[in-house]
Amino acid sequence: MIIEPRTRGFICLTSHPTGCEQNVINQIEYVKSKGKIEGAKKVLVLGASTGFGLASRITSAFGSDAATIGVFFDKPATEGRPGSPGYYNTAAFEKHAHKAGLYAKSINGDAFSNEIKEQVVNLIKEDLGQVDLVIYSLASPVRKHPNTGKRFKSVLKPIGEVFTNKTVDFHTGNVSEISINPAEGDDIANTVTVMGGEDWKMWMDALQAENLLSEGATTVAYSYIGPEVTKPVYRNGTIGAAKDDLEKTAFEITDDLKSINGNAYVSVNKALVTQASSAIPVIPLYISLLFKVMKEKGIHEGCIEQIERLYSERLFGGDLALDDKGRIRIDDWEMREDVQAEIAELWKKATTENLSELGDLEGYSNEFFNLFGFKVAGVDYDADVNEMVSIPSEQ
Ligand code: NAI
Ligand code: NA
Hints:
Elements: E1 7-8, E2 11-12, H1 17-33, E3 42-46, H2 51-64, E4 67-72, H3 85-99, E5 104-108, H4 114-128, E6 131-136, E7 142-144, E8 151-153, E9 163-169, E10 174-180, H5 187-195, H6 198-209, E11 213-223, H7 238-256, E12 263-268, H8 275-278, H9 283-296, H10 303-315, E13 328-329, H11 337-349, H12 355-358, H13 361-371
Helix pairs in contact: 1-2, 1-3, 2-3, 2-10, 5-7, 6-7, 9-11, 9-13
The structure holds 1,4-dihydronicotinamide adenine dinucleotide (NAI) and sodium ion.
Sodium ion (NA) is lined by residues 47, 50-53, 137.
C-alpha cells in the first residue's frame, strides 16, 4: 500500500515501515561511527521501541555488541492499517541486530503488569542468565496497577495556580496564549503513580528476587528539568512531582542493590521531539526555539546523540559528573547559560508572524513526522510498501 501521514492534533495515526527502518539504520550508523563503548553486554530496555529507549537499545547493541531484550507496548499492523512506529522500529532493529550477529528479543505488552515482568524474568533465565544494565524509559499516560487492577491516569497540569503562557501549534505555526488549570483531586498522586518510581522499583525487585542482576549491575531511568518558562507546567507541575518521585526512587534502588554492588541512576536528558513531549503544552514552542539556538551553536542533539554521549562519556566513560542531587546531567548543553539566555529573549518576541524565523518550526515539524517514519531523507514514499511487517522474535 501507499502510506501517507494522517494527523489528529499531536498524534499521527499512520506510520511508514520503510521510514521507520531508515531512522533505525541512521541511528545504528551514528553509533557505529562513534566507535566502540566498553559497556554492558546484557541489557534490558523497558520502553525500548521509540525515543530515548530505542536509542539506548541501539547504543547498547551497536556500541557495545550487547545482547538486548526490549519491552514496549505497540500495535502490529493489520491488513491495510499500519502498525505503530515502535512496532516497525523494533522489527527493523531486530533485523539489523540479527544481521550483525547480536542477540535481540522483544516482548510486546504492558510493562506495568505482573505477567510481562514474569515473561521477562523467564526469558532472562532461559537466554541470558543475568543482565548487567536495565534502562527504564517508559512514558505512558496510564497505568493499571498490578496489585489492585485500578487504572491511574497521569495529567500535565501546574500545581496550585492557573498557568498562562505562550504555546505553538506546530502544524500551523500559530502562536497563542494557553491557560492550564491547576491539578485537582487526586491528579498529583495519580501522575506520580503512573510516571513516578514505583514501577521501576517493582522491576528491579522482581529481577533481584530471581538473582537476575549481575555483580555491579546498573539501572538508569530518564528524567527532565528544563527552563524557567516551562517550570510551572513541567518541573513544578504534576509530571515534575512524578520525576521527583522517580529521582528519590534511584536512592532506594541503590540501597536494595548493595549486596551486588549495583547502582541506580537518573539521567536528566535534553528536551526532544518525541510522542510524549509533543503532548505537553508550551513545550513545543520552547523546543522550536531551543533547536534554533542549539543548531546555530553547533550543539544540537537528537535522542541517539544524547544517549551515545550518555554511555560513552558518563555511564562507561569513567566520569558520571553527578549534580548535587546525585543525577547524571546529559542536559548540560541545553541548560548552558548562553543557550538559556538566548531562548529567554526569543521567547518574549515569538509570535505567529516571526516564529518561522526566530524558531526552528520546520525542524520541529520534520522531527515530529520522522517519529512516524515520514519525511525521512532517502525514502521513496510513492513506492508500494508492505505494511504487514513483523518483529522477528515474535514470529
Ligand atoms: P516515548 O513515548 O518515545 O517512548 C516510550 C516507550 O515506552 C515506548 O517504547 C512505548 O512503547 C513504551 N511504553 C509506554 N507504555 C508502556 C507500557 N504500559 N508497557 C510497556 N511499554 C510501554 O518516550 P520518551 O520521550 O523517549 O520518554 C522516555 C523517558 O524519557 C520518559 O521518562 C520521559 O519523561 C523521559 N524524558 C523525555 C524527554 C523528552 O523531551 N521527550 C526529555 C527528558 C526525559
Ligand atoms: Na523511550
